[in-house]
Amino acid sequence: MNSVHYQQEDGHAVRASVTDSVAEVVDSVMRGRAAVRRFLDRPVDRRVVTDILDVARSAPSNSNTQPWRVHALAGQAKDALCAALGDAHANRPEAHTPCYKHFPDVLGERYAARQAAFGAIYYGSLGIDFDDTARRNIQTAQNFKFFGAPVGLIFTIDSSLERGSWIDYGMFLQNIMLAAKARGLDTCPQISFVKYHEIIRQHLSITPYETIVCGMSMGYADPSARINALGLPREPVTAFTSFLGFDG
């Protein structure tokens, strides 16, 4: 395995050669990660899930507060939660309110445009017309089955913590998704679970002092599913970065 070497030029460290190995592997894992919404019926061993969480816990957190708590579900425990969530979504969705808002009431123009583009690609891959509310609702219900994944994860945080700890949590979640991908597994982070936080709280004995952050599906992606190959566009670096002081 080669390493990346640096040399000094005019008192500055300059990258002399991007040789291969580590950077290429890490970049490949990061670029290869994508939300998967159809999984194979193939179990995932508890030891693999433990290994993924073990490496993910190396995520940084302010003052090493480590604000994450994970509820890992499989088998009958997952099926029972899925059944309860599916029933609520099918029969009493209006009775439930998310425990926090993911987006503002009015989404900014640039974000709304990206959201609309995603919806067109997403539902288009399923052959669902965006105006077909009934079929869209059926597809949304797949969230609460963890899209058929053998492992479901529910994440909670101490409700007293502020935005900084949620930033820490995001890095932990990303670590999980990358560690899973590096082991041949795929994931889908899901904000949809926060609507049914009361049901989840009852099933998992979550204390009143915790807030549900999100859920996540984990398993082996179905390679034949078109929905798993959306190829969503990303803005180029120049669109979101200002470089200052680099010239010369």
TrEMBL record:
Pfam families linked to this entry: Nitroreductase (PF00881)
Cofactor(s) of this protein: FMN
SUPFAM superfamilies given in the database record: FMN-dependent nitroreductase-like
Coiled coil segments of this chain: none
Gene Ontology terms, MF aspect: oxidoreductase activity
The keyword Cell inner membrane is annotated on this UniProt entry: no
Nitroreductase domain mapped to chain residues: 31-220
Keywords: Flavoprotein, FMN, Oxidoreductase
Similarity section: Belongs to the nitroreductase family.
Protein name: Nitroreductase
